[in-house]
Every structure is written in C-alpha cells, then in structure tokens.
Amino acid sequence: MVTLYEVLNSLPEGEAIFSEATLDLVIEDVTADSRQVRPGSLFVAVPGGRNDGHRFIGAAIAHGAVAVIGERPLSEIEAEASGIGRTVPYLRVGNSRRALAFACAALHAFPSRHLAIVGVTGTDGKTTTSSILESILRAATATKDAPAGEVGVITTVGARIRGEEIDTGLHVTTPDAPEVQRFLRAMVDAGCRYAVVESTSHGLHQQRVAAVDFDVAAVTNITHEHLDYHGSREAYVAAKALLFRALFASPPKPGVPRAAVLNADDPGSYDALRTVLAEEKMRSGFDIPVRSYGIAGRSQMPLDVAVEHIAYDADATRFDLRWWGGCFSIDSPLIGEFNVYNVACAATAALALGIDPSAIQRGVKAMPPVLGRMQRIDAGQPFLAIVDFAHTPVSLERALTTLRPLVGRGGQDGRLIAIFGSAGLRDREKRYLMGRISGRLADYTIITAEDPRTEDLGEICREIERGVREFAGADRYAIIYDRSEAIQAGVDMAQPGDVVVAFGKGHERSMCFGEIEYPWSDQEAMRTALQLRAQREAAAPPGRDPEPS
Fold it and tell me: Partners of 31 in the beta sheet?
C-alpha cells in the first residue's frame, strides 16, 4: 500500500485536481485495466491503438477506483465519469504510460533501487544473453545452501526469481509496468542482489521499464525489425537508445558500478549509441563508462573485451576472452558465431559489474538450454530436429549458417530443411528478405503460417515465395499453410543426415489467426510429427518405405 501523496511525489510531472485532504488517501493497487479495478485502486487511463482508457474512467470508479491518472483535460471526461475531480482525485499528466510505471514503482517501494540491474536490448539474442548473464550471476552468488544464487531475470520467455519459474504470458515482449515492478519487488523480498531485465523496443517505447533504475545497459545488435511499429529505422534505434538514456536518470547505488556495453562489430548500433551516450553526458554532466566487445580483428573499433581463438564443435564452442584485466578461456554449450557474441555481451556486462572471471567461466559452462533457441527435439530419429526463434532476416541467416556444418554428420549426405513464415500486421519488407535468405542457404524451404492475424495468409506466403524463387526452383520449396502439416512434411521428407528446423515461434505458446490467440507450441508440433513418422515406420512391412502422411 502507498498514499496518494507518495504516488504524486514519484511522478515526473502532472497537474493535480483534488483537495489536500485527499493526500493521505491509501492506494492499494495500480492498474490500467478497468476490469481489474477493485476498491482502493488507482486507475491509470492510457490511450491505446484500439481503446482509449479515458473511456473507461467511469467504469473504473464504479468498480471502486479511489483516484485516476489520465492525459485528457478534466473538462473532457467529467461528464462521463461521475465524481471525477471532486470526490475522486484526478491527476492529469503528459504521458500516462510513464505515469503508470512510476506509480507502480511507488506502490512497491521502488524495488529497483535495492538491486543491481542490467538491462539487455537489441534485435536478436536478447533472451539468450539475459539467460547467460543470469547463469553467470547465479554462479557468482550461489552457496551450498542457496544454489540458485541471488539473481532474478525477466525475459520475453518468462521470469525467474532465484531459479523459480514464473510465466509472463503467451507472446514476446517486455511485460507491462505493473508486472515488471511486481517481479522486481518479489526479487527484493526473495533476497536477490541482481536483476536482469530484457528490454524490447516496444517495452522501452511504451514506458514499461521507465521506472526501473538501470545500472548497466547492454546491446546485442540492431538490425531490420519492427519497422511496422516504429515507422523508421531511426525511430527503432531511438527506442533502443532509451535504455542507455535511462542510465543517466538512475540514482547512484552504493557499491554498484555503472556501464554501457556496446557491440563494436555491429554497425547498426555502435555509432548511434555512442552518440546518444555523448549527448547524455553533455546534458547531465555524468560520465558513464563504455565497455565494448567484439571478435578480435573483425572491426577497426577498440575493444574492451575481445574474443580470440574460436573453436566450433557440433555441440559446443570454445574461445578466449581478453579483457582490461587479463585473459581467460570460455567453454560454452551454445553453438554458432551469434552465440559467441551473446556470451561476449553477457560476459562484458558481468565484468563491468565486477564479477570474477571464474564465475563467468562457471556460469557460461553451466548455461542450460534456452527454450526455443536452437532447441533440439530428440525422439531417436536419424536426423536433427530443431526449434528456433529466428524471425528476422539477420537471425535467420545466422541460424542457417550455424546449422550448415551439422548437415550430413557421420559422412552422410544431408539437406537443411527450413520451415518458417512471417507475422501478419508486422514488418512486410522482411518477408521477401527472409525468403531470399532461405532460398540461398537452405536446401529445401517450407513456407507456412506464423501469426497471420487479420492479413491474408496466402499473400504473406507469396511475398516470402518471391524471395525464395530468386535462388530456388519449384523443386526446392513448398507452401503449406497449416503449420502442423508443414512441420509434418519437413519431418516426413527428412533422411539420415538431414537437419529439419522450425523457425519463428520458438518459445511462444500461441498463434494468432484473425484477432484470436490459439494455443500453439512448435516443440509439441515437432514431437507429434516425429511420433507419427515413427509409428508409420513401425507399421510398415519390412523392406517397404512407410507412406507419408
């Protein structure tokens, strides 16, 4: 619980309309959903793409809201909301989403001020990097009595507090501000010292982490994604940059270092974020240390953490990390160059926090598989079946390049079979680009559904097909609208030595058709396909190939 006065004190700005007698009013909850209002709630009216929260102020008051925050003038809403500004205090602000974040932080006594917090953003690799950093911080803080360590993490897959899993929902973005602050409060109450917060461009732009006091901000890369929402690459980069600007707004925490962690090999982010950091330094007078990472010799930029002597295996990657304090070796169970960068990003953030290299080594080596990231589905089949979240041109290219050496293992011939689609009502340009990449790098492409929403699925698939056909003839691809049937077809055509990969859904647990989210799991679809294939093979007469489904 918190008083209205404490909420008002927390807000960046606003014009209050109520009597001073209400300052001691007790606020028991903060919400932007009028359906969740209960007696004692503070309702925040947030303008949205479909629904304007100001239209529901009356309903919120009827359900027991004792105060309201909104953006519209009182004169525009008092006719629809009985008592607003008189018996029910109203605070007008310039940005309701930002006010929601700070009000929720006040409700939970600003939990981020009691944690060392690392924010991780970027186009690709955010979840994996956040999970690697969690594993490192667990290794650094674990004891015999508390093997889960003193760390919590919030990602687009879920949240974990000292190892305990908490689901954050069906789809992929940073949770809303009330959930973020609730998770952080739970971390403080559980005795965590560190928190890792994956910060998407949507989450940053929509102020979901606006009241989080970040100490370290890290970026993986910035490539082609979410232009449907942000409108331009410049706006997309500006949204990512909000995480780094937040470093200058956070109050100092005793004994907690500050740092900005940049990928020196990524032209899409490095120069832009260096410029943002320079602007903020000029404006605030604060100097946030910048720590850059990359592969030695890859770019001309100076490196604080350099990756050297990389050795790739089918199920592991080994390399050295040279940093400002020396050099140490890394043995990672994650494969591919993109995961080298993810490990380097996490390690640089940990080093910036003062974590010992030995803890980094242990944490990386103990890193468990990340749901939906190069996840192998094994049912005893003589080929590899994998589920991966790659859903951008860059991540698809990196994934296919990484998987190519795994094709034809054991001296067998083999094919790389890619199954993917592209989301409706999202970035249209990437459909053609991803088609070109798969046509060039995969041996066979199956184009299918991936959250078509209200768009025509056939048109989405044809846009991908246009790219595929630039490199592949009609015998090297197929369009199968039903994603279950597409995965089954990929499994059925696989031979020993092949690699079959379902891209794009990863950890997600729903697929959107129209405006309805239907339960979905690529992992379950792949397991079912493998099971059906095995059943047919077991039932086939000796010497005869089973009929495909």
Answer: 43
